[in-house]
Amino acid sequence: MPTDSPFPQLPVSGITIPTTALTTAALSYSREHTSASTVNHCLRSAAFALIFASKIPPYAAADAEAIVLSCILHDLGWAIGDSKALLSSDKRFEVDGADLAREFTRTHSDYDEVRLQEVWDAIALHTTPSIALHKQPVVAATAMGILADFTGPHHPSGLLTVAEYKEVVGAFPRLDFREELPRVMCGLCRDKPATTYDNFVGEFGAELLEGTEGESYRADRDKHNVRKMLLGGLEATKQYE
């Protein structure tokens, strides 16, 4: 690894975050558009993803650069300040991140459409492990690494050790990530609520938004309840059958 690498050595974990023109540029891009605690979350996720890839035989040949790229860029949908102009008004944050990452990668690399789609899938599906874990190794390892930053050694795979966890968090400190997460989720519920009703983001809004704002959000979310929509739709179609 070059001595000027932005990625530290992780001897306990035994993995090396690849220092390439693409991963270095991606890190700069993430730092430009997201908060310091989000960047460190993405770097921890990348390290955890590589640890899993090193321990799961089917993932051994996975493209480490693509895994790291996907992890570093996966929360571009949390862009802050003026960078919010990059975001859509009608897409889930995962899709915003996937779209931005695909365009960034297309501009900064020679990835073909298949590899670009893997990066897009890895980011768009990272909050849906029940799907991501059944796709390509890059997609699955990315989802596992991101989840590990929330579960630590209690990851359901049982493959992450306490020593590995401590090393990664020591290299990329949490800063105020625990406090930032609910702020970001509630911000999404305020800024584009329609993208949050059918997924976990809405749980933050329903629980944490207060006063009339919270009451209004919960009422709107209830109107878009998926169970009610499906059963109500079936009932409404009876007249045509």
Automatic annotation (TrEMBL):
InterPro entries: HD/PDEase_dom, HD_domain. Pfam families: HD (PF01966). Gene3D superfamilies: Hypothetical protein af1432 (1.10.3210.10). Residues 39-131 form the HD domain. CDD domains: HDc. This is HD domain-containing protein. It comes from Vanrija pseudolonga. The lineage of its organism: Eukaryota, Fungi, Dikarya, Basidiomycota, Agaricomycotina.
